Amino acid sequence: VNAEVGSYLDHNVSMDKVTGDAITVHIVGHTHDDPGWLITVDQYYVEEVEWIFYTMVPVLQDNPLRKFTYVEMAYMQRWWQEIDDDLKSDTVALVNNGQFQINLGGWCMNDEASPDAAAVIHQMTDGNQFVLSNLGLAGRPTVGWHVDPFGHSWVTGGLWAQSGFDAFAVHRINYMDLQTRKDAQNLEFIWKGSSSLGEDSYIFFHILDSGYCSPREIGFWDGASWINTDPLLPSWPPNQIQLAEQLVADARTRSAWFKHDQLLIPFGCDFAHQNAYQSYIQMDKLLDYINSNATYNVTIKYSTLQDYIGAVNELNLTWSLEQPDFFTYVDHPHAWWSGYFTSRAYLKLYSRSRMNDLRVAEHFYFFAKNMGLQADYTTAMYNISYLRDAIDVSQHHDAITGTEKDAVAQEYMNQLSNGTERVNHWDESIVGQFLKGPGGKTPTLIRGNDMISQLTNNNYVVMVAYNSLAWNITEFLQIPTNRSDLVVFNKNNQTVLSQINPVADQEQNAKYPAKYNLFILAQNMAPLSFETFFIHVATAEHPAVVGKTVEFESGETFKAGSGYYTITIDGTTNRLASITNNNLGKTFAVENQFSQYAPSGGIYYDGDIASGAYIFRPATDNRLKLDSNNDGKLQNKKQTVVFRQAFANTAKASPGIIMQTHANSGKYSDTFSATVCDIDLQSDPPTFSYQYYRHNGGTWGQQPLLDFLVFDNNDASYSQIVANQQTGSKTVSASSSATASTSITFSSAFKNVPTLLASVRTASCDGMQFTTTITSLSTSGATVAISRIDSSSGWTGAVSLDWFAFDGSEVEQTELMLAGSSSIQISASNTAVSNISITLNDVNNDYVVNEPVVLFSVQQTSPTANTYYYASTTYLNNNETFIINFDPISASGSGSVQLTVRYIAFERITLFGNVSSDASIKNVMITGPLMDEVQQTFRAGYGQTYRVFNVDDEDDLRFIDNRVLLGPIDEGAEFITKYTTELSSDYEYFTNQAGLEYVKRVYFPYWDERIAGNYYPSSGATYIEDMSEDVRFSTIVNQGHGVGSLRDGEFEMMLQRRCLQDDSRGVAEVLNTTFHTQPQVMIIMDSAENTANLNRRLYQIQQFQHSFFFALTDTIRSWSSQYATSWTAMNAAMLPAGLPENIFLMQLRYVYSGSKVGRNGGMVLALQNMFEVNESSMATTQTIDLSTILNTNVLTVQNSTEMNLLASIPLANLHRLPWNIQTDDDEEEIYTIRDPNSEQKRRQQQKLKDQSSSIQLKPRDIRTFVLNVDPDVPTQEEEKQDKEY
Q1: Radius of gyration over alpha carbons of the chain, in Å?
Q2: Direct distance between the N- and C-terminal alpha carbons of the chain, in angstroms, rounded to an integer
Q3: Phi, psi (degrees; rounded to nearest 5) at 405
Q4: Axis-axis angle for helices 117-135, 377-394 (nearest 10)
Q5: Angstrom distance (rounded) from CA 191 to CA 308
Q6: Is residue 62 predicted with pLDDT exceeding 50?
Q7: DSSP secondary structure letter of residue 528
Q8: C or N terminus of the chain, fewer CB within 10 Å?
Q9: CB-based burial, 1153-1186: b 16+ in 10 Å, e otherwise
């Protein structure tokens, strides 16, 4: 993302910052090369990246002390393809001697929020297999870093531990947490990467202390800094001393944040070292100078992350064991990076779906090659690799995140589409050979369903469905068609339950031109199998089953579904009202609503961070942030903004505005005033103008704030923040002096003396500024004294007094609002600013607003003879106190002025609304034997369907199928679908990270952005739970998305975003996407046990749905007599169920690239136990015999070798570093993991395990095997080097 230059320190260097205890500084030369961001991956390669490689190799050859580390294999493989053998040999030599080190080794540096684990492991495997095949085992990464992904999950740490990495480093964590860890010397610890895997998931964790870019004094790679050591250059004096002392001072400051004497300083940044000569020769000079100066007491050297970790490990220190989750990332106040969880939803959805196409192609290649089928395997692997590359690159942290430019996103889509087309050609070329008939005849089958258009009374459409899962499953197949006269048969000429429904209104668009959906119940589909269906024109004997549209009276409540679930649509709201689980015999209140946040920025720009591709920050009313005013140009400058909330009737609106200046930083004596000076209701949208004024000076260095409340005197519901509020606007005639007084009469008397807020509004923006003091206040009215504060002269014209009154004792305190009062006194003769702190009246001790809007009034209770006026500004508003600066307009007399401050403190009103009124929602109910479908239209661009099955004996259909039909959504909208249930979830919810483990999220209301700060990523499943009732409500979505639970029993999912302004995080483009998306939401309301089991299984069924192939035939018999109608790759011993229900076949493909088989020449099988420890009764250890998974006519497993997660080294040959860990219990025990003796024992035991085909998978295990080939193992010299490291 945004190329950054570390956190810079004070460079007015003194010797006490330069000298000190001995430290060793590791200068880690690197480049961070985004595979696409501002320009495409191809453009980056041609314009920038290849020059890094071409110049780096000779630079490293010139000096054996120089080192460089590289990450992204997507680029290195491109370069490798174009260079000659000599340059390849030179590069391999540098790898072998440790100068050119591969870090991470993935195809890209993947995002950690959106991708599924299968995609992450896939791209990491592909990258590391490139390393293995071209650089050899010496190039295998032993460490990895994620310097740029926008937040980090401990699940990633667990994956890298299973990959055999010794350490993992990151950069982007919460800036507040970062500072806390610096202060506590806790930037390094052992990260627990799984709640189930124990020590197998532990990894040493390092947080980069100041970013991944160089300090500016060593920015030699981009011209940010230059060094000259030659005194004979008169126009450029030598500066090595200055640079050295700056760097050493930086190093000493940063070293204090660690508990040892080793320090890592990055040397590089985004696309750094395109001229490596320029970078390294200058760095040589600086290193030589520092190392030659004993005064510094610093050893500084070229290094790598691997070298640094080795040096830290040699210190034999003891580390804490922690399991923090570093979501959601925030880099600045109000800047929560929770927008990218959903940005470019269309790309997230499409990338996820391509994994299914790739899986099918990989399977076909695997089966065909082992069966010896006739095919062009070279071209096939080229096409498969094309889609592999496209999917791998799309996992990049500026790709699937949606944080790239539009043109780059389109190129990702193009590559995914092109790759899909290529593998489809491969699939079509080979699929028929699996279905050869008894005479050896091969059918011709194609992807796509356009053959239905060729259907007549005299033929059939053959549809072959492939199940890529290693389970027997039941699924409803969905085929779009323009015909409603269809019937489906199986291979035995028996009708198959099907149903034809008209397509929903919002489903009809350019991407989905069909008029109908043909739904087919595919029961008991064998694992890894083909099954054939026949589609024919309906007849009287075999009529089409067409869903019947049910008519309802207006306002009538109705139900849908008679199988496992029944849903109720309320006749008043026209929305979901309840879900009945017929198996449990319970009905649960569940309300579903479509809503949208307005994004900050654009017309809602408030002077602070905008909502954009990275950041989610909903627009709010009630606060504006001003720029600094060091040059004085903003003093009393007219500023115009739109009214944040629309008036119900603009023509009749009569707005008034209460203004209060506010600041949270800077000089605490700064005191401001703000006056509304124009209201333009004719503007579209309507606007108001104001002038901001510093009373005690004409400039300001801080960014002050303006808090305000708008009301409409003709619409009591507008900004109705408290009950029984009264408002008014009164014209006050021009005064010949600076002061005047006016009275207010309330429309009805209050029971108690009310809080009265009042602000002066002028008719022209001529610079007049005013303040008010209430001189009398009763239940029926008040007297308000007004004084001009910018001048002692009279008024230039009449003004309006806007007032807002309410009974403070009747304000119901909530966690987001409270009211109160406080008596204070100020010396009557005081001429200086008084800072007075007021404690909020938080009687319930539950007020949570981090930086509330505080509006207050001042009533002078004594003396009564003279009225005192003050310019006032609130400071440091928080959930406990606020401070008021009182700057006297004039001072006179003696004694004290007694004042009563009455206030209301509340959270800024979020600009949020429902997509449409309940009355305008249109429901269509279609019923049939397979399902009831409720088609719901909110308005154009917003719709959904609920498909509730009427078959109740199919475990795989125990969900409600909810298709959300979106787009284009409104410009300036962040769309959510929200579920409100009756469950008591205790403000907790659980998001599934990478499809592997659930992370408990707890609502924390104290963040400065309460909504955005409580949004978290979900790669698929999310649930809330009522433990007292043993019930969970869960959703499974086929795209990464953001979720939040802001109220008990409720959660919302953000599914599309369309912003108004860039968020200043580097992409420099507004996220303004207009795509139509149709994500699938599987809804489950069930017991905790059932939900846990269904979540795991249905997640995989959703990701890897059936693939279809089509042909035409005259009759079912003619097809069945010539060709096979079913086939399975599964071993008969595993049939009919397939693998155990808790075991997922994650990988089955040719990808291993060891020297014995060449690139993609070896078979890899990966199995996953999907359940976490104690997740459900399914969380058990399973024993699997690898030799009995596949049919022997597909593959006979002669031997298997267990590998690391990335299949790059046998576990029996894996050496790992030992680490000392201190427990956090009362015993504070210290123990060592991976010590040499235990590692030696583990390797010996692994060699014995590899002799057997029987394996065990514990809960959450992912185990990876190379089949029928002896993998590459390190040479004795490599093992020796590994042990030494």
Answers
A1: 34
A2: 33
A3: -70, 160
A4: 120
A5: 18
A6: yes
A7: T
A8: C
A9: bbeebebbbbbbbbbbbbbbeebbebbeebebeb
Max CA-CA distance within the chain?
115
Residue whose C-alpha is closest to residue 713's, from 653, 642, 643? 653
What is residue 933's three-state secondary structure? strand
- One-letter amino acid identity for 1270? D
Per-position b or e across 663-674, b if 16+ CB within 10 A of its CB? bbeeeeebbbbb
The sheet that has 1219-1222: what strands, in order across it? 143-146, 167-170, 202-207, 188-192, 318-322, 1219-1222, 1230-1233
**Continuous segment of H or E residues that includes residue 698:** none
- Measured at the alpha carbon of residue 78, what is the angle toward residues 77 and 83, in degrees to the nearest 5? 95
Residue 724, phi-psi category: left (phi > 0), alpha (psi -120 to 50), beta (remainder): left
The answer to whether the beta carbons of residues 340 and 106 sit under 8 Å apart is no
Residue 1190 DSSP one-character state: B
Q: How far is CA 765 from CA 671, 707, 726, 762, 1009, in A?
A: 20, 19, 27, 7, 33
* Cα–Cα distance for residue pair 831/264, rounded to 1 Å: 54
1267 φ/ψ angles, rounded to the nearest 5 degrees: -105, 135
Strands 318-322 and 188-192: parallel
Q: How far is CA 252 from CA 240, 258, 415, 549, in A?
A: 18, 10, 47, 75
- Distance between CA atoms of 700 and 663, rounded to whole angstroms? 11
Question: Considering only CA atoms, which of 1102, 967, 936, 973 is closest in space to residue 1034?
Answer: 1102
The continuous run of DSSP H or E covering 740 comes out as strand 739-745
CB atoms under 10 Å from CB of 270, counted, come to: 22
**What number of other Cβ atoms are within 10 A of residue 17's Cβ?**
19
Answer for the pair 57, 94: CB distance below 8 angstroms, yes or no.
yes
- The residues pairing with 645 across neighbouring beta strands, listed in sequence order, are none
Nearest 5°: CA angle at 366, between 360 and 370?
150
- Residue in this structure with the two tokens 């694992």, named with its chain if needed: 527
User: Which DSSP string do the residues of 28-45 spell out, in sequence order?
Assistant: EEB-B--SSSSS-HHHHI
Structure tokens at 205: 């964790």
What are the backbone angles phi and psi of residue 734, rounded to the nearest 5°?
A: -60, 140
623-667 confidence digits (pLDDT tens)? 999 999 999 999 999 999 999 999 999 999 999 999 999 987 755
Could you tell me the two tokens for 340?
A: 């990218």
Asked if omega into 1079 is within 30° of 0 (cis), the reply is no
How far, in Å, CA of 978 to CA of 1052, rounded? 4
Distance in angstroms (rounded) separating the CA atoms of residues 857 and 821? 9
CB 871 within 8 A of CB 673: yes
Asked if 874 and 707 count as a contact pair (C-beta separation under 8 A), the reply is yes
Overall average pLDDT of the 140-154 stretch: 98
Angstrom distance (rounded) from CA 583 to CA 566: 10
Tens of pLDDT, residues 412-454: 999 999 999 999 999 999 999 999 999 899 999 999 877 898 9
Is 0.85 surpassed by the pTM of this model? yes
Residue 109 · residue 148 · CB < 8 Å: yes
745 burial type by CB count under 10 A (0-12 exposed, 13-18 middle, 19+ buried): exposed
Within 321-439, residue ranges assigned H as helices are 345-371, 377-394, 406-430
Cα separation, 1001 vs 987, in Å, equals 8
Question: Cα separations (Å) of 669 from 168, 401, 697, 704?
Answer: 47, 44, 10, 12
Return the structure tokens found at 1089: 């046990």
CB 1013 within 8 A of CB 331: no
